[in-house]
Design brief:
The chain is α/β, with parallel strands linked by helices. It has 9 helices and 9 strands. The model has no long low-confidence stretch (mean pLDDT 93). The protein binds NADP nicotinamide-adenine-dinucleotide phosphate.
Length: 277
Amino acid sequence: MSWLGEWVLTLECVMAKRSFAGKRVLLTGASSGIGWYLASELVRAGAFVVVTSRRSERLQQLRLAFGNPRKRLIAVPGDIADHEHRCALVDTAVEQLGGLDVVINNAGVGAIGSFDQATPERLRTLFEVDFFAATELTRLALPYLKRGNEPAICLVNSVLGHRAVPGKSEYCAAKFALRGWAESLRLELRPAGVDVISVSPSTTRSEFFESLVDTVRGTKSASVGSQSAESVAKNVLGALRKRKRELILSPAGKAFVWLNRIAPQLLDRLLSRYAIS
Ligand SMILES: NC(=O)c1ccc[n+]([C@@H]2O[C@H](COP(=O)([O-])OP(=O)(O)OC[C@H]3O[C@@H](n4cnc5c(N)ncnc54)[C@H](OP(=O)(O)O)[C@@H]3O)[C@@H](O)[C@H]2O)c1
């Protein structure tokens, strides 16, 4: 084939939208918020989904919520920070679905409070859940993804993985790490045809701020405005469908990251003045 033919073929592949019909998906953090809606939308779109989170009763509710047509949703409760559990997730997908096409690393936890007042455990927990769980689950899934149909790895990151704020140092660090890792992985996996898609929501209405790690009760996030978990989930799946590389979801999130690029010192001043949690 001529170089032009190859180029047209590549362009067609890039332009073709990913469909979820019949796709075998592994989704973390499905018991609430963004993950709950991701699971519902995926099943509705005809995917077969292995879901996980610690709260098994919530996963049961999720299964009952839409009747689980043709056993499209398989719940495997457990702690994503646990290596054995991650192995069980991939094994379940392979044994019950015959392989894997998409992994969505959505499970995450946050914390609020200054670094010098925090315990070392807070930093460890956030890295275990927000970074190591996603990277190590992906490592286990990769051999199957490479044989998958239109394979992709999706990471639910955060605007705070692009620009850090005070009072959330551990969370920002874990999300920055995830973004750096994703950038490398995207290039490493290009020859194998596995997409790596990173989606960064701004503040989202979910249970996220009710389950903060080692955080003084009642501490409020300094963020302004919020998105619904349902709309974030739809946008995450849109990014997967359209094979986006990196997507910052809200206009405010885009403006925030853009301002950081052009005037980081101004943003430093604004954040240190107004964003102390
Ligand atoms: N909410 C926001 O403002 C916001 C903004 C930007 C990015 N995000 C990101 O969006 C993603 C989803 O968060 P969300 O807003 O939907 O919050 P959420 O409602 O609190 O959902 C978090 C999910 O992660 C699961 N999870 C947490 N720790 C886990 C563990 N150790 N093992 C297994 N599952 C665990 C939770 O389930 P169990 O508790 O049942 O285990 C839950 O299903 C996270 O990665 C978060 O960083 C959120």
